[in-house]
Amino acid sequence: MRKLLLTSAFSLLGVLSFAQIEGKWKTIDDETKQAKSIVEIYKKSDGKYYGKVSQLLIKPADPNCTVCKDDRKGKPILGMEIIRGLKKEDDEFTGGTITDPKTGKTYKCTITREGDKLNVRGYIGLSLIGRTQTWQKTN
C-alpha cells in the first residue's frame, strides 16, 4: 500500500511539473531556425506568468527597443518583459501577450508544453491567424 501511495505521489508530481512553463527557455527563430535569446518565464504574485529576456544570443542591431509602442519604447531588450499576463487553463497558458522586440508588435499569446519544448503562438484576433515558435528548455 505504501509503495502504491509513493508511486501515485511521484506520478502526480511528474504530471504537474510537466505542464509548468517556469524556467529558462532558448528562443528559436521560426524563419532562420537560429537561437536568438534566453527568456526566463516566472509567475508573479497575481498568479499570472511573465517572461523577460535574460540573455541575448545574437547581438541586435539596436540594443534598445526603439520600435516598441508602449512602456517598453526605448528600453533595453536585455531584461525586457516580453511575455505578460498568461494564465494557466488546463494544459495551456493563454490570455496574455507577447511582444516581438524586433518589430515592436504585441500579439495575443498561447503557450503549450511538450516535454522540454514550448510551443509559443503569437496571433492577432483568432489563434488560427498567427505563427508558432518552438522554444527549448535550457539550464
From TrEMBL:
<dbReference type="InterPro" id="IPR019223">
    <property type="entry name" value="DUF2147"/>
</dbReference>
<feature type="domain" description="DUF2147">
    <location>
        <begin position="23"/>
        <end position="137"/>
    </location>
</feature>
<protein>
    <submittedName>
        <fullName>Signal peptide protein</fullName>
    </submittedName>
</protein>
<dbReference type="Pfam" id="PF09917">
    <property type="entry name" value="DUF2147"/>
</dbReference>
<feature type="signal peptide">
    <location>
        <begin position="1"/>
        <end position="19"/>
    </location>
</feature>
<keyword id="KW-0732">Signal</keyword>
